Amino acid sequence: MPQTPASVPSLHLERPVQGRHAEILTPAAIAFLTDLHDHFARSRHDRLAARLRHQYDVGLGSDPHFRADTAHIRDSPSWRVAGAGPGLEDRRVEITGPTDPKMTINALNSGAQVWLADQEDATSPTWSNVIGGQLSLFDAIRGQLSFTSAEGKRYEVTAERTPTIVMRPRGWHLPEKHMTFTDRSGRRLPASGSLVDYGLYVFHNAHALIAAGRGPYFYLPKIESAEEARLWDNVFTFTEKRLGLDHGTIRATVLIETLPAAFEMEEILFALRDHCAGLNAGRWDYIFSIIKTYRGRGARFVLPDRSEVTMTVPFMRAYTELLVQTCHKRGAYAIGGMSAFIPNRRRPEVTEAAFAKVAADKRREANDGFDGTWVAHPDLIPVARAEFDSVLGDAPHQLARTRDDVSVTPADLLDVRIGRPITAAGVHANVSVAIRYIEAWLRGLGAVAIDDLMEDAATAEIARSQIWQWIHQDRSTEEGIPVTRAFVEDSVKDLLNSVQRFDGDRFADAVEIFRAAALREEFPAFLTLAAYSSYLD
Hints:
8-stranded parallel beta sheet, 19 helices, 15 strands, globular
């Protein structure tokens, strides 16, 4: 019987290439993306299937644990990670933000040591944002970026020393619907958002970054296992060969922002050891992952109001202390979590309270042994730097603090007892944050100031997943009100009656997305997946 001839792998653009997009979507760049998909698309799908199996096992009562089959990695004293690359030696303050031109310029002028150029949770993945962000980075790296606002204000990079750029591509689970990959069997699938974001950035900018004394550096989001980290390591090695880079030139910092990853931190470092600079405590997504993973396991795993889930509660304390210990044992930097407070220049009392909270948060991180931290606003950089300067002094890190005093068990990582209630105000706050954020996301905004906090997709995920869990676990508020769909719908109505509407707003769509993610029987793994498929341009 004759065999069906193999197809030639190809990547098809579902949109015409217009204007300056042609500078990013060059034939050579598309050929590189095609090679990436040809080599790694199948492994990506295997890893996503493994996630589903793990979630199924936990749902049936199997708790995460430190893996027996990788004990030899944890027990071996002989290996270390590559560590900081050029320009990453001092990471005491990192600023995060999306990659539109204005935010790129603000970040580069901020005075931070590092800028997390975020193509993931702080970017709404519209086609114009995805490729426009690549253009912002392309121009910034070449010193040619400027921006003039609709009001006529001109923005330029004026800092003598700009932060080292660490780019965050989308996670393995996210597709890029504007590109279609045809594999060797002829199967057509949406491209990988991870490989598109990563591939375009590294292809265009790796050599320019190296020439400038830095390098192609990445934050890796949403990883759940060492196998997922190894997939990234294979991508890096392939890229280095393909682009003529020395092995180990690419460096990655992994966000430990899922519960499964917290049980495999050493294995993740080992899998990426030739390319790894450190780990980051991605606090907001980590809380979301706890809720998502244990959403159906009973009242014991129900968290109270989001405002009560602080970094000092037992499971968050265990996770961050284990992260510092693990990193320093292997020569990796430990980077703390983001402070989302935003100064309010019209309300000085709000700003003063925010500064005090940020200072306390960063003081704790520095004293715990972290080598750096995140902030969301330039005005918070001096506050965070002061706390790390007081501990680090002139040293660029505190890797010598191995935290041998820390001993964390699986039970510690799963100790979600907080002893605080769910309140009616907490329900209303979750409804408000989720819907207001989704509405802005649908208009192309991925980082949104809401009630003096910088919210991104992670906090919207916490808000809607808490609502889902409270309903399905038959929780009641401190005031004695059962958290039901009807109660939440009343909160939705209250929000729509109080929020300022405007021409072109997307509140109607946002409410439908919220209902699908928080009020239906099925729990979507990520609210952005269906919303991206059906609502974003």
